[in-house]
Amino acid sequence: MNIVDFGEDLRNPGKYIVPARDTRGQKENLWIPMQPAHLAAYGKIFESKLFPYVNRHDLGRHAIVRHLNILSQIAPVKSILSEADLITATSRANLYRMTMNDTLQVLHREVKQHLDEGEVELARLRLVEAGGHMRNMESIAERDGDDMEKEWARKFSKEFERQFGAFLGELWSSVNGSHQYAEGA
Predict the structure, then answer these.
(1) Secondary structure (3-state) at 144
(2) What are the contacts of 54-57 at 24+ separation with CB within 8 A?
(3) Tens digit of each residue's pLDDT, the chain (185 residues)
(4) pTM of the model
(5) Contact at 8 Å (CB) between 160 and 154?
(6) What is the span of the domain harbouring residue 108?
(7) Apex 166 CA angle, 162 and 169, nearest 5
(8) In sequence order, which ranges of the chain are alpha helices (DSSP H)?
(9) Count of CB atoms within 10 A of residue 114's CB?
(10) How far is residue 94's CA from residue 171's CA, in Å, rounded to a whole number?
């Protein structure tokens, strides 16, 4: 069997995200004894950075959920996988929203600090760099992402443009050496 047999495109980074908590913030822990060679292989897969796992727990959650889906297709048993998939999709959307909001807040603080220190060029360069990452994120999502990932990449890019576009476009016209910057504008 190959991975396509299960209708899952593993080239899509979004397919690797299995949040640890459900929509109510609940989680359960699982402890699994395993052979040293299996644990070593697990570590090598994570350390290879070939897959978009942030930590070892991400790899474990993805492996378990993926295998549960495989088993349910081989021998359907009464389960709550559909409910769990719905919770995962909702949690993923919340994770995207929090990441977007947190990232933009940090970016606002960085830009404001640079401007407060009179470092207009550093602020501009930081926003230009962030804009490049936004375009890259959008093109990767368009190429490899699922619909949710594509939509969040567009939303993230649109929000970045809304908050920083005019500021960047004007190259911060200064009046008497002070620069106009409204946080969250």
Answers:
(1) helix
(2) 57/20
(3) 344 344 455 666 677 778 888 777 788 888 889 898 988 998 898 888 888 888 888 889 888 888 887 877 777 766 666 677 777 777 778 888 888 888 899 999 999 999 899 988 888 888 888 888 888 877 777 777 677 778 888 888 888 888 888 777 764 444 334 444 444 44
(4) 0.51
(5) no
(6) 92-179
(7) 130
(8) 36-47, 56-74, 81-116, 120-144, 147-169
(9) 20
(10) 33
Alpha carbons 178 and 139: distance in angstroms, whole number = 36
Residues 105, 137, single domain; the answer is yes
Looking at the structure, tell me whether residues 171 and 97 fall in a common domain.
yes
Whether residues 157 and 106 share a domain: the answer is: yes
Residues 6+ apart with CB under 8 A from 84: 65
Q: Is residue 116 part of a domain?
A: yes
Using the 3D structure, point to which of 29, 52, 82 is the last residue of a domain: 82
CA atoms within 13 A on the CB side of 104: 21
Q: What's the Cα-to-Cα distance from 24 to each of 15, 27, 99, rounded to whole Å?
A: 21, 9, 18
User: Cα separation of 32 and 24, whole Å?
Assistant: 25
Residue 106 has what pLDDT?
92
